[in-house]
Write a structure and sequence with these properties.
It is a single chain. By secondary structure, this protein is mainly α. It has 2 domains: 256 residues, no CATH class; 137 residues, no CATH class. It is 70% helix and 3% strand. The protein is built from 19 helices and 4 strands. The strands form 2 sheets. The chain has a two-stranded antiparallel sheet. Strands 3-4 form a two-stranded antiparallel sheet. β1 and β2 form a beta hairpin. α4 packs across α14 and α14 packs antiparallel against α15. The relative contact order is 0.10. The mean pLDDT is 82.
Length: 502
C-alpha cells in the first residue's frame, strides 16, 4: 500500500519533470473558458442517459448505501482510534508513569510544608522543622534574646524555692519533697509547644519560651519522667496517673492554664501563620511547579519523538528503507530520516512551551492543595502523586471552560472537557494500580531486577488503552451525530448541484 509520504515524493518528482507549461497557448485556454455552453446539447445527453439508467432508488439500495457510508465513516474513525491508542500508550509510559516516577521519588509523606496537624504526629517536611530540645534550652542571649539558658534559670529558681528543710513544694500535689527529687518542669512541654506551632517561630523566640519562668513549675522527678512531652492536662486527667502520683485536679488545672497562657505569647497568631504558610507554599510551589513543568515538557518531547520514530519505522516497513530518497546510501538516508524526526519535534516547540507552562501552574496548584489537605488530614506519597497528576487535567479542563477557542462551540468545549477529565481519572487509577503491579512483579525473583521497567511499561500500556477506550465511548455518541450531519450536508450538496444543472 502506497503511503502518503511516498505519494508526496512521487508528485514532487512528477512536478519537476513537467516542462510543457511554457508551451501552453493562454489565448486558446481563455477562448475555451469564455465560450458559450450548449445547454440544449447537454440536456439532450441527459435525456438519452435516462433511457439506459434507472434513476429510481429502492429501500434496499438506500439501506445498502447508508450501511456502506457508515462503514466507510467508521473505518476512518477506527484508523484514528488505533493511532490515538498508540499515542496514548506512549504518552502514559513517558509522562505520568515514566517521568512521573522520577518526580514522585522526591515526594514526602505529609507534603512539602510542615503543618500543625502533621507536626502533632511528628511528621515534618524537612529537617529544620523537627523538634530539637537544644533549640529551646540553650541561652537566648547568644542570638539576641534577653533570657539565660534554661539550666541556669533552673538552678536559680531552685535556690529561691528551697525551704529550711531542704525541700521544695510539688505544684501538682501540694506535697513537699527533698530538693534532690524535684524537677523544674515546663508546664507546657517544649515538644508539645513545638508541634502546636513552635516550629514556625524564630530560634530566639524558642529559647525565650524555654527559659520563661511563667511556664515553670516544680514537680517530683518520677511524675516529670512519666509525663514526658504529653499535654499536661491529658496526663493529669488520666485516672491511673492521678492515683499513682497523688495528683490534685485543682492544682494540675492551674499548672495547665498557666502553661497554655504562656504559650499563647509565643505561638504565631492567625496573621503570622498565614504569612508562614504563604511563604512556604510559594517557595515549595515554585520548586514543585518547575518539576511538573519539566515533566510535562519532557514528556511531550519524548512522546512526539517516539510517535515520529514509529511513523518512520512504519514507513520503512511498508515502502522500504530508501523509499522516497534520491540517495541510496544507508547512513545518508538514516541521517535524513532522523532529521525528519527532529524537524517534527522542532515544529512543536510552542506546544512544548505550553506544556511546561501548564505543568508549572498545575504543579504549583497541586502543592497548594496538598498543603491545605495536610492541615486536616495526613497525605501519603501515593495520594500526593495522585493530587499532582490529577490537578493537571483539572487545570486543563478549567482553562478550556474559562477560555475556550473562538472557533469552538460550547458543545465541542463540553466534549473536550469530558475527554480531559476521563483521562485524568484513568491516570489516577493507573498510579494506584502501579503500586500493586510493582508488588506482584517483585514477588517473581527472575523479574525483580526489572520491576520498575515492567511496571512502567505494563501499567502505561494498560492506562493508554483504557484512555483510548474511554475516549472512544465519549466519541461514539458524537460520531453518530457527526455522521448524520455529514450525510445530510453531503446529500444537500448533491441536490443543489443537480438543481443547478437543470
Amino acid at each position: 500500500m502506497e503511503t502518503q509520504l511516498a505519494r508526496f515524493q512521487k508528485r514532487k518528482r512528477l512536478k519537476n519533470s513537467i516542462t510543457n507549461y511554457d508551451k501552453i497557448d493562454e489565448t486558446e485556454v481563455s477562448k475555451i473558458l469564455n465560450s458559450n455552453i450548449d445547454e440544449e446539447k447537454i440536456n439532450g445527453i441527459l435525456q438519452e442517459t435516462k433511457k439506459y439508467y434507472n434513476t429510481d432508488v429502492s429501500k434496499d439500495e438506500i439501506k445498502l448505501f447508508i450501511d456502506k457510508f457508515q462503514k466507510d465513516f467508521n473505518d476512518e474513525k477506527f484508523d484514528k482510534l488505533i493511532m490515538d491508542c498508540k499515542k496514548n500508550v506512549i504518552n502514559s509510559i513517558t509522562t505520568p508513569l515514566g517521568l512521573g516516577n522520577f518526580v514522585a521519588a522526591y515526594d514526602k509523606v505529609g507534603g512539602n510544608v510542615t503543618t500543625t496537624h502533621n507536626a502533632k504526629q511528628k511528621i515534618y517536611a524537612n529537617e529544620e522543622d523537627k523538634y530539637k530540645r537544644d533549640d529551646y534550652v540553650k541561652s537566648a542571649k547568644s542570638i539576641g534574646g534577653e533570657r539565660e539558658s534554661f539550666s541556669t534559670v533552673r538552678e536559680k529558681t531552685k535556690a529561691t524555692n528551697i525551704n529550711a528543710n531542704g525541700q521544695i513544694k510539688d505544684a501538682n500535689t501540694g506535697l513537699y519533697h527533698n530538693a534532690t527529687e524535684m524537677d523544674l518542669d515546663h508546664d507546657k512541654s517544649l515538644e508539645n509547644f513545638h508541634n502546636e506551632g513552635g516550629f514556625m517561630i524564630s530560634d530566639k523566640d524558642k529559647r525565650e519560651f524555654g527559659a520563661d519562668t511563667e511556664n515553670h513549675s516544680f514537680t517530683h522527678s518520677s511524675t516529670n519522667r512519666s509525663k514526658g512531652s504529653q499535654d499536661h492536662k491529658t496526663f493529669s486527667d488520666n485516672k491511673k496517673n492521678k492515683e499513682k502520683y497523688n495528683l490534685d485536679n485543682r492544682r494540675t488545672n492551674a499548672v495547665h492554664k498557666r502553661g497554655e497562657k504562656t504559650a499563647e505569647k509565643y505561638l504565631p497568631n492567625t496573621k503570622e501563620k498565614a504569612i508562614y504558610y504563604s511563604s512556604k507554599i510559594t517557595s515549595t510551589g515554585i520548586n514543585e511547579g518547575a518539576k511538573m513543568g519539566m515533566q510535562q515538557a519532557l514528556g511531550l518531547v519524548m512522546s512526539k519523538f517516539f510517535n515520529a520514530l514509529f511513523d518512520e519505522m512504519l514507513n520503512i516497513y511498508k515502502g522500504g528503507f530508501d523509499n522516497g530518497f534520491d540517495n541510496d546510501k544507508f547512513f545518508t538516508i538514516l541521517k535524513k530520516r532522523l532529521l525528519r524526526v527532529a524537524k517534527k519535534i522542532k515544529e512543536e516547540w510552542k506546544d512544548v512551551a505550553i506544556a511546561f507552562k501548564d505543568g508549572f501552574v498545575s504543579g504549583f496548584i497541586s502543592n497548594f492543595i496538598t498543603t491545605l489537605t495536610n492541615m486536616f488530614v495526613k497525605t501519603g506519597k501515593r495520594v500526593i502523586r495522585i493530587i499532582r497528576e490529577g490537578v493537571f487535567p483539572l487545570f486543563r479542563a478549567a482553562m478550556l471552560l474559562l477560555f475556550p477557542p473562538k472557533n469552538m462551540s460550547s458543545e465541542d468545549v463540553k466534549y473536550k472537557v469530558n475527554k480531559i477529565l476521563a483521562e485524568g481519572i484513568i491516570i489516577s487509577l493507573g498510579i494506584i494500580t502501579a503500586e500493586y503491579i510493582d508488588i506482584l512483579i517483585k514477588s517473581i525473583p527472575i523479574l525483580e531486577p526489572f520491576t520498575e521497567l515492567f511496571t512502567t511499561v505494563f501499567t502505561g500500556a494498560m492506562t493508554g488503552i483504557a484512555i483510548t477506550i474511554a475516549v472512544y465511548q465519549i466519541d461514539k455518541k458524537k460520531n453518530d451525530k457527526e455522521m448524520f450531519n455529514y450525510l445530510i450536508a453531503d446529500t444537500n450538496t448533491k441536490l443543489n448541484n443537480l438543481s443547478m444543472d437543470k
